[in-house]
Amino acid sequence: MADRTRSETTALPGIPPGVLPATGPGAQELAAYRDGRLDLARFELVDRWLAAQPPDVQERLLAPPGEPTPGTALVARDDAGAPRDEPHLPAPEALAGGGAPFTPEAAGPGRFARGEQLGIGGMGVVESAHDHVLGREVALKRCRPRRPDESMAAYAARLRTFKREAAITAQLEHPAIVPVHDVGSAALGEPAFLMKRLDGERLSALAEARAAGGELDLARTAEIVLRVAEAIAYAHRRDVVHRDLKPDNVIVGALGAVHVIDWGLAARTARAPGADDAGTSEIEALALMQSTASHYRVGTPGWMAPEQFGAAPADPRMDVFALGGLLMALLTGRGPRDVPLPDRTPGAAVNLAPLEGRGLPRGLVAVARRCLSLAPELRYPDGSAVADDLRRWLAAGITLAEKPSAAQRGLAWLRQHPRSAGLAAFALLAVLVAAGAAVLVRHLDREHIVARIAALDRAANFEKPEMEALRTARHEVEALLRGHPEIPEGRELHGRLGAAEEVLAAKLHLEARRKRLADLARTYAQKGPWATEVDDVAEVLRDCGYLHGLAADTERLRTDPLRPQVLPALVQLERSWLVNDIQAPQLHDLPRLIMDAAPNRAWRALGAVLANATVSDYDLMISHGPDADLALDQADTADLLLATCSPETRLVKVAQERWHEDAGAFWPRIVSARDALEKADWDMAERHALVALGAESDSLWPHLVLAYVALADHDDQALLREADYALDANSDNIEVLVLKAVALAHLGKRDQAQFLLDQRQEYGLIQYHLHNPGMHPMERSVHALRDAGVTIPEVPPLRSPVVRPKHR
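Now predict its structure.
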């Protein structure tokens, strides 16, 4: 197995990689740690050792050469007792202007040009940058340099916290959360990442305008806070708490777009996987260093929840408190702590007196007051509950927070559902007509009946029909026709209503099938191959009218409005049959079906590629030639091959072209990451996987790549964490189970590792990768499994199917 190595790694003499002596690292390694020259595995080990030392010891150990430090200076010596040389950090002024502001992984230093400063915060500086390759404006966020009054221990913790921000933000894919384009380093070597450039004004500017007597736009106020609450709710569903929500961290665009920024203080809740690792507590470490880093807190005092003034763990109700502060600021121009209390109440208290102003809507004021409750249990449970109440106010003018009366709720329901109220009236009328039809119909003259039918015709809304409204109208027309069957307008409307029902039912059925087909590709992107994939895909295709014979399938597919969704499902089924060596009756028919019913040359070529595909190491291998070139030249067929086939050279080149066009494209990033794994380029694999997480935060694929990177880094805690994330997506994936077993064995839990594998009894596949060297990354994990002492029974290895080219 190839180990992850870098030229700048500094190992202690006589100490194997991954092991630190009780006395800690030597001076050379501490200098490399300060300079950022240690590889990730060694950095984490030294980092954990330093985190266990008292703050004053950290400060002495991490002070640059020549800087006065408190206490007695520590002099590092080599094995012979002579002082060791300490490498020096280059002076920032020596590097100013030299080198690019950001160096991405696939371009030279001249790709980006630094622009104006957009903002500065406690940990980072945001600047504009121009991407010469893509011709677009982006935002560059880089970690702030160390301040003169900041200890090295606090600075090192801040560097690690800044890196977490990029990883967390990349995993939160939401329209109101700024997407991360790429990660890297800035001109001085400090960590940095590229984001979408935002245009707009900070929420604090709107609050200031309101404080200056500006007009209160209630609808816009509620909409803005609703957009923020929806973004926070999305993060809460992924067990992430922002913890620094304030007006300066919300950007409102000119066209109504709202973005929540600066996730540097975000943390996972206690229920989140891996919430108790060292990485999650870096921000708390900064807060404890008040004597040397007083600028850093877990939140902003004016806006954070009272419990954040202590050492409370991350909780969604902290963000709920801040949402109430934002709503209060937009309603009144004042924050919850802008007006001091007369009795010198501690800083955690709030002053809600501005919310008592005249003209403020009761519903929104009640939402703000509930959010700003000092006791967490009195607030909304999370951002989703806040968003629900704001939507309720926008739709009906009331909120649950104000505890409306039954009459208020009834009036609000009528305002919110005027159509349903009308339908209810229609239904009541139909019941009355049915109960007394014999009497009522005799007293209605023909003109009144015709007028009622005309009114029903107008209310049917044939341009945008709704099934329930059509059925209700048809039933009432039927009741009218029972008394006056001779009215032609009634018979004609009854026929049109029935036809509209049939058309709408067919449309809804078509959309349901379209969704089921699209969900197949989505499931594969989330879970990878799953245990029942063959049966699930075949079932959906049969429900859509396929797998009934080549001739019938071809005739149907040529005119099927679902053809754009059926074609990828056919490719997915063919891949599953080939990789699992299932000799299905229609194994050779699917490529011919794709070729015969293809909408263009690229799809015909894709069918030909499938007809000549082979399988090696349980991966689909495409053939080379004109057909492959044609299929890879069209975006949809190229993406399908990237998701389906092994990352050979031609596919890797196409993947690179695709993610240069779209930096966040998922499958091009995954293919590039898998190629980097094969080349043992761990840094590149890690970067691609992190960007892919921004597109599919719940997907198995990026976590699988990161697990292999952790395996190469000898970082068993990270390996276990990434394997658990991947198993959350697909608990049956044997490749991930082997990686988890390796982590457990390395952590001294060999019995658990053995039990995990014995439950699955997939030793034939493990034996195959143990004795068949190739390019599949699973070879690394099964060799690591054996080396860790886990028993692998001697069972016959599975045979990798080799599918010969079929007749075209």
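Residues 616 and 664 are 29 Å apart (CA to CA).
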